[in-house]
């Protein structure tokens, strides 16, 4: 009797596990359909761009307008902010929707851009508010809401509270 129960329960358990995997995959693909770029106040650098999860976004200075040159190991350390093809990224509060767009990467994926320049995160940033990629190699910089690179601490940021806060809402970050 016990072996008969196990004989029926084992396949059901495997189906349940497979179902969870499919649900997780569907959830991941849904999250990548929408990218929201928000403005966040950083105590040292002023108002900068962040993803909808509060993680800091960067620009790579060797990139040209409309062209991402970071791939391979570079993209492993500096993951591009990707979105599904034909999906328009969303502008959170303080972010100019007119400057937000996408570019096509060499591998065919669609990357979120601001003022035509590709946006990336940094694997060295472990939590929202981290800005560990600022100035790395003299080529990676924060971006402000006017699309300018932030290369120096902001004088107005000194009057800002020490915590970094993200402005309103947005979709999930995959």
Write the layout of secondary structure elements.
Layout: H1 2-31, E1 36-42, E2 46-51, E3 58-60, H2 73-77, E4 82-83, E5 90-91, E6 100-104, E7 110-114, E8 117-118, E9 140-143, E10 149-150, E11 165-166
Parallel strand pairs: 1-5
Antiparallel strand pairs: 1-2, 1-11, 3-9, 4-7, 6-7, 7-8, 9-10
Q: Would you give an account of this structure?
A:
The protein has 2 helices and 11 strands; from the N terminus they run H-E-E-E-H-E-E-E-E-E-E-E-E. It has 174 residues and is α+β, with helices and mostly antiparallel strands. The protein folds into 2 domains: 1-31; 36-159, no CATH class. The strands form 3 sheets. Strands 1, 2, 5 and 11 form a 4-stranded mixed β-sheet that branches. It is globular, with a radius of gyration of 20 Å.
Structural class: alpha+beta
- How many H/I helical runs? 2
The global form is globular
Detail the poorly predicted runs. Answer: 8-33, 158-174
Strand residue percentage: 15-25%
Mean pLDDT: 79
Rg over C-alpha atoms, rounded to the nearest angstrom: 20 Å
Give the total of beta strands. 11
**Helicity, in percent?**
10-25%
- Main sheet record: 4 strands, mixed
Could you say how many structural domains there are in total? 2
Q: Termini distance?
A: 46 Å
Succession of helices and strands: HEEEHEEEEEEEE
Descriptors for this entry?
alpha+beta, four-stranded mixed β-sheet, 2 helices, disordered C terminus
Brief write-up:
With 174 residues, this protein is an alpha+beta fold.
